[in-house]
Amino acid sequence: MNQDAFDRCNQILQHITEDTSVPRNIRRAAEESKNILAKDEEATIRASSVISILDEISNDPNIPIHARTLIWNVLSELESVHD
């Protein structure tokens, strides 16, 4: 269950990192989030780390609306992760 959620999140984050219309700092945060999801730690720790990063950048005034929506999708997906 959790791995499916992480896979879906990774796909969305990959899309953000490849989108050149998204500012570099947001793409960097998406890449960092992907790396955290790939680590071999407890699912809840990985999810909460990524939620923290993405929550912060989702409030960036320079983020395009489509990228903000994708980030919100990832956040809602990760909030359902549990052990």
Automatic annotation (TrEMBL):
Pfam family, one: UPF0147
InterPro entries xrefs: Ta0600-like_sf, UPF0147
Gene3D superfamilies: Ta0600-like
Homology family: Belongs to the UPF0147 family.
NCBIfam families according to UniProt: PRK04330.1 (NF003319)
Descriptive protein name: UPF0147 protein MSWAN_2407
